[in-house]
Amino acid sequence: xxxxxxxxxxxxxxxxxxxxxxxxxxxxxxxxxxxxxxxxxxxxxxxxxxxxxxxxxxxxxxxxxxxxxxxxxxxxxxxxxxxxxxxxxxxxxxxxxxxxxxxxxxxxxxxxxxxxxxxxxxxxxxxxxxxxxxxxxxxxxxxxxxxxxxxxxxxxxxxxxxxxxxxxxxxxxxxxxxxxxxxxxxxxxxxxxxxxxxxxxxxxxxxxxxxxxxxxxxxxxxxxxxxxxxxxxxxxxxxxxxxxxxxxxxxxxxxxxxxxxxxxxxxxxxxxxxxxxxxxxxxxxxxxxxxxxxxxxxxxxxxxxxxxxxxxxxxxxxxxxxxxxxxxxxxxxxxxxxxxxxxxxxxx
Amino acid sequence: xxxxxxxxxxxxxxxxxxxxxxxxxxxxxxxxxxxxxxxxxxxxxxxxxxxxxxxxxxxxxxxxxxxxxxxxxxxxxxxxxxxxxxxxxxxxxxxxxxxxxxxxxxxxxxxxxxxxxxxxxxxxxxxxxxxxxxxxxxxxxxxxxxxxxxxxxxxxxxxxxxxxxxxxxxxxxxxxxxxxxxxxxxxxxxxxxxxxxxxxxxxxxxxxxxxxxxxxxxxxxxxxxxxxxxxxxxxxxxxxxxxxxxxxxxxxxxxxxxxxxxxxxxxxxxxxxxxxxxxxxxxxxxxxxxxxxxxxxxxxxxxxxxxxxxxxxxxxxxxxxxxxxxxxxxxxxxxxxxxxxxxxxxxx
Lengths: 348, 348
What we know:
The structure is a homodimer of 348-residue chains. Chain A is mostly helical and 348 residues long. The first copy, chain A, is 40% helix and 2% strand. Chain A starts with a helix and ends in a 14-residue tail after the last helix. At the A-B interface, loops of A face loops of B.
């Protein structure tokens, strides 16, 4: 795992005075971190999914609007709450009409950097997630596209927003375009953190304990999966590499993970690796919210993934690092938009 | 209903040139409006319910926090949504565990100016409303004070907020103090509107159509009930003075209103007069959300309360006036606070 530039730095440090050695170690740590992680981009637009001001405005309204779902009382923001950094503080959320969701809410912040969406990777990207959610029996309860679009047509303020967002289309009010608009909005939701400032070269952006924690995070082996721009969310991995995960988490029921999607025995208990950005703000943890606190979650991961028993001091340092992955809430997420007024039909 | 200063203005106007007469009419209208209505205060603190920075900060967090309710998935802001000006765009909301609320959500904006709280006046003030809601089977589902406080004690960030808000109390974490804190927060939620600027003497704050609408609003008799600082919310009134209300609204079931609280036959179909501040942003209308649009609601009121059939032009003018009762959303309401992290126990 040790890369050449680090070796050179270490060798150089060995021939200098101790204070210089410490500084050289710090430089080596930064350099190593820069090889493993990348800072967040300004936004998460792609060639396929561009961001325009009009799409973001429409998408932001739709994200906060409960009138699209069957009883007109749940929106994307019901589970992805700004107050909890895009999660809901529950082990597993309850969907429409008291229907239980099977897994914990992953945050939608920075989610455009994720290689697939959802714990089992059964959504290819943000737009696919929104599209499927719009007629999901748990998330929406709406039977089909017509039912969702019927709601929107009863709110006069939406037609001009769709027209502005998709000016070349004669009938822009479609599920595909709702997905594109909400996706465009979500692709603006990035949360640059002190760790990004550190990656840009500012050592002081991380306090000493956090830098120690970063070093332990690297040397313990966490970075085998938690790397890249998302500090995770770049690959699949089995949960429980060296020990069955539920023995450490107390999970009940036991989730077969991606196996239930692919039926491939190699995917048994395999999940998308979670991004650790804003992890200190998004309790509880894991696909079933079975672990309540971050120190406990760090210990569980070291144990079941790496066969390492972390002591309290090491755990504290790693947590001090993870806490520096918390960024500011984007203003266009923290602040709710004023929605176009309009009562949809009374729900009987 | 015509007051002396208006008579003088009208007489004066009759002896001047037409342009002057128009100006004099405008002055008379403003003067009359200033006698009927009052502008919003800066906040709604009282001697009994003072506002402190610490109480507002605590109260704002509690207002947005779903972890106090039985399944930890509904907060005050679930019904009083910023995106809908403190309402939820539904005829009647659904409470915890799919339990139906009996009446439409009244906005919490400016609610500290209301003489009583709720449609039937069965809450004496904001603090009483919060206190009762915390263990209401529909709103909260929590059985008692202990259950609510247990939740808060599992979220480490709350203890210091309670200590700061109620520094003289050894055990500040109580339902009474939750009510005081949320009440203090809500007492900051005022929405000064163009109409307030008009009442302060700026004619131009209301466009011509809105001033015409104001005149019609006065002369039709709406101001008999919709007056004062709230443009309503200062008294009780029977809904359906000249005609049974449900014949105009199609309401089903028929609500006996305050009669069910007092058992006084004089209270049959009596409700608190709604404030019309922000009324254009809070569809649908009436205690059961039975009417979807503002023009329709204005016509229903003229018909069943005053025996007047308003034509479309008069209705349009009155609506143009009512639309100028919309104020800016307070920043501390539009923007969700970041809540103290903490997972409460998994809900089984």
